[in-house]
Predict the structure.
Amino acid sequence: MSIRIVNFAGIIGWNARKYLPHLASKAYLAMQFALREKKQRQFIEQFMSEERAPYPDVVNIETINRCNSNCAFCTANRFSERRPFAKIEDGLYYSVIDQLAEWGYPNKLTLYGNNEPWLDKRIVEFHKYAREKLPKVYIFMSTNGLLLDIDKVDSIVPYVNQLIINNYCEDMKLHENIKIIYDHVKAHPDKYKDVDILIQMRYVKEVLTNRAGSAPNRQNEKPKEVRHTCVMPYTDVWIEPNGNMGICCCDNFETTSMGDLSKEKLVDIWNGPKYKELREKVRYGRHNYPFCRYCDFIDAGLRGNIVKEELSKKQG
């Protein structure tokens, strides 16, 4: 594997996001819904046909609910954050990882949510424990890279399959510390041959989805019902630092709850009545579930790939 830089749609896409932000966002979302709705529904019907819920595809654990960036589209940015500060208790974290191991969980894990993982000083030790207990699970870290240096990269790569560095900027240039990391990895390919290091060039003031009404730079829009379905209730476990299992990353204000991991087992929550109700309603459109009613989030990346992979397995 090697380090690579990705800039969606290149300079044309960058300029569209920068100079025509709302138009670019609307066009992108309309295209993604049109392209993905049919396969998403097939994936959901396949999921719902199982007697018990299949394994989630991604387990997200937010170990600390703070970020140090200023992304205009995110309520967790350092200027918009309004959640009470929280860090996951060590015992709760280790319990969740142990439960995943006992369950035989085989898919993807990330110690990341609406936050910056490097703000948690335990993050390397937490990854080490996860790798020891879940040797076959695909572990990935997503970071804004502001705190990253070569030493931090070297400390985390033994425990992750992928390191995603989101280079948020206005000028389509790498931050100096990320440029140093890029050059270093390029110069030592054998040292990093077992990890995929992906640098994503991101426009810091981009207009994205409305995140169920929480996106700071889409607050002036009139809400519109979304009748498309969504795969997140079928693909993702979302764990907050206090042990609450919320619906997904769009609940920036942590208002939803599928269960409490300090009182219930993860597998029981995943197969529990709240999730069953959520999935049955979203199955036929987001407008059927109050929290999701106006949410236009769609992940054309990781979850889009998951849908393709799961459908191909069934067909194969």
